[in-house]
Amino acid sequence: MKGNVLVVDDEQIVLTSCERILEPEGYDVDTAISAKAALAMLQEKPYDLVITDIKMPEMDGLEFIRQIRAKDPDMNVVLITGYPSQESIKEALSLRIIDYLPKPFSPALLTEVTHKAVEFKKKGVSPEPAVEDYTEEVAAKLDEIINRYKDKPGSLIPVLQEAQELVGYLPPVVQRHIARGLNLSVSEVHGVVSFYSFFTMKPKGKHNIRVCLGTACYVKRAEEILQKLKEILKIDIGEVTPDRTFSLESVRCLGACGLAPVVVVDKDTYGAVNPVKTAEILENYNGKKKEG
Ligand code: FES
């Protein structure tokens, strides 16, 4: 069994569909026709994921999530919504939902979101890395970008580029927003984002550090610089420091081989870098002090 899932919706047809889609995928699915019934079930059995409708009589989805959070702050919750108002999404995100499913959703999307959410739970990963990035304001700006390109052919790439400039990266919640806005499938958007290397699904720090590992830099011991940065920041390539100040990338030739080895922080290029200078460079940003 891949995991225990509780689906909560006041429409029986939604419950039945979720069961029919998820059970053959290996999930143990229970259903509840109201939030109240679901809360009682949550007392009785451990669940890996709760998928709940937002609009329900008596107790709506948001109040339901609030009550879940009071008892189990780490429960993974996915919200089923109609076209979501920014207000409800904002509130749902502040309640740390892991994702949302716009109605009507395809079996493929339900399976994908469920799989991801259950995996998160198993790995003990915090469910809401995107909260601070996908705010009401960001969602409104994404709509502006989408509307500007909507009726033009080939609109997906420029929309993704502007969205990445705006948010800094393209988390699943942003990809879904764009898919909905441009009337594309989520997998189509995801396919483009994963295909092009200039799109990233990982958040960047306030200061993005790129270490060149191209040939000229490599022979001048760029690996040691990278190692030093990893030690000081305690992150690996592609990661961000917990305070989101720094992110670390490696690149192949920054076009400044004469300065090798080269490190670029944001738009600042540093040449002839050595491990000692590396620590000093970091101190220029946010007063980060040397460690280790
Ligand atoms: S190899 Fe590093 S800048 Fe060219």
Strand order of the largest sheet: 2-1-3-4-5
How many beta-strand elements? 9
Number of helices: 12
Poorly predicted runs: 125-131, 288-292
Shape annotation: elongated
How is this structure best described in words?
With 292 residues, the chain is an alpha/beta fold. It folds into three domains: 3-123, 3-Layer(aba) Sandwich (Rossmann fold), CATH 3.40.50; 136-195; 207-283, Glutaredoxin. The protein has twelve helices and nine strands. The strands form two sheets. A five-stranded parallel sheet has the order 2-1-3-4-5. Strand 3, helix 3 and strand 4 (77-81) form a beta-alpha-beta unit. Helix 8 packs across helix 9 (186-195). The termini are far apart. Mean pLDDT is 86; it is low at 125-131 and 288-292. It binds FE2/S2 (inorganic) cluster. FE2/S2 (inorganic) cluster binds next to helix 10.
Which short descriptors sum up this protein?
3 domains, single chain, Rossmann fold, four-stranded mixed β-sheet, 292 residues, five-stranded parallel β-sheet, binds FE2/S2 (inorganic) cluster, Glutaredoxin, 45% helix
How are the SSEs ordered, and which strands pair?
Blueprint: E1 3-8, H1 12-22, E2 27-32, H2 35-44, E3 49-53, H3 61-71, E4 77-81, H4 86-94, E5 99-102, H5 107-123, H6 136-149, H7 156-167, H8 172-181, H9 186-195, E6 207-212, H10 215-219, H11 222-233, E7 246-251, E8 263-265, E9 268-270, H12 275-283
Parallel strand pairs: 1-2, 1-3, 3-4, 4-5, 6-7
Antiparallel strand pairs: 6-8, 8-9
Helix pairs in contact: 2-3, 6-7, 6-8, 8-9
This protein binds FE2/S2 (inorganic) cluster (FES).
FE2/S2 (inorganic) cluster binds near residues 215, 216, 217 and 260.
